[in-house]
Write a structure and sequence with these properties.
Elements lengths: L1 E5 L4 H12 L3 E6 L7 H10 L5 E3 L5 H10 L5 E4 L6 H6 L1 H21 L4 E7 L23 H17 L7 E7 L1 E3 L18 H9 L6 E4 L11 E2 L1 E3 H15 L8 E6 L5 E2 H12 L5 E4 L14 H7 L7 H15 L3
Parallel strand pairs: 1-2, 1-4, 2-3, 4-5, 5-6, 6-11, 7-10, 8-13
Antiparallel strand pairs: 9-12
Helix pairs in contact: 1-2, 1-8, 3-5, 5-6, 7-9, 7-11, 9-11
The structure holds nicotinamide-adenine-dinucleotide (NAD) and UDP-4-deoxy-4-formamido-beta-L-arabinopyranose.
Length: 340
Amino acid sequence: MKVIVTGGAGYIGSHTVIELVNAGYEAVIFDDLSNSSASMISRIESITKKEIPFCKVDLSQSSECNDAFNDHKDASAVIHFAAFKSVPESVQYPSKYYKNNIGSLINITNCMDEFQIPLLVFSSSCTVYGDAQELPVKETSPMLPPNSPYGHSKQLGEYFLKNLSSVNSSQIKSIALRYFNPIGAHESGDIGELPNGIPNNLMPYITQTAAGVRQELSVYGDDYDTPDGTAIRDYIHVVDLAVAHVKALVYMRSDKSNQDYEIFNVGAGKGSSVMEVILSFERVSGISLNYKIAPRRDGDISSIYAESTHTKKTLDWSEQYDLDDMTRSAWIWEKKLRDL
Ligand code: NAD
Ligand code: WQD
């Protein structure tokens, strides 16, 4: 079975291509390399020992998107990662985010209908819950006002797929996976997260600080209403997240799946504070991290973690890795990248 993986050269996409190939699927990567590099394709190939077809295409351009699908119209499913993902950049350049994140999704679903490709897995995010008042958040928890154009683009993507599922003109069956905070890297240390410029996210900031690329980590706020005062998130190993996509495809093709649009949280269901992540990193690396307490970051919420029972039961998925595995693998990747 052939699966088109848009954004397959990126962080989560690359790990998912590996898990797809491991599970016996044929994966094709569609990516414009706007936030990744061609070397990622060869790294994936050396891990999987398979040639992975790659199509360099900007999916926000409808004719380019159409040509790429035309070359792979025998595909049975699409996993759609391709999007821009920086929260602060989206605040600065909202049109860039709406154009790519919504435009690409519309182009892709048009092509799927044209070429009769029936199954879609969409990358959504826990950001759609906003500043949720009741924790853990369930798939049925309300979507609150988003704190960024990026978050809004994910909410719109979900509404769009839901609406599409109810019209006769589209035959697409889709699943939105709401990722919590993916961190970590493949055990080989050959692929991992490679942010452009100064990282916004905690894990790459930690590993770059330990590697000497950044001088000091700022811990944004130690006055939250949490046990140690630092903010809580639901960190999930990127390989566990990748496996959830394979499980979603298996589920969609099974008799168990009888809805045209479904949503699943993908988190471990456990919150960890910023300080717990730092302590885990120090434990596994043996490095004493240079950090300081700084003011809260604008737009941050205090805590969020997933109710993941529905996902675990329905998709027959569960996380295999704990926080130390996540921080250890992130560090192995960073060291290999920097030749340390
Ligand atoms: P990433 O930037 O590493 O990967 C995205 C890939 O898509 C990149 O390789 C980029 O070059 C490609 N791309 C972007 N726009 C494109 C276009 N128009 N045409 C073709 N390719 C394009 O990001 P990631 O962390 O792997 O995230 C993947 C998806 O998961 C995104 O949709 C993101 O919003 C979502 N998500 C990420 C996180 C996270 O913390 N990383 C959390 C929740 C949801
Ligand atoms: C985690 C915690 C920070 C950096 C973002 C997006 C979200 C989703 C996942 C895509 C927070 C703290 C961070 C630093 C710090 N992405 N922190 N010092 O903000 O939970 O979620 O990525 O959908 O939409 O908003 O992740 O890794 O930036 O932060 O103290 O240098 O680490 O304040 O509490 P976040 P993050």
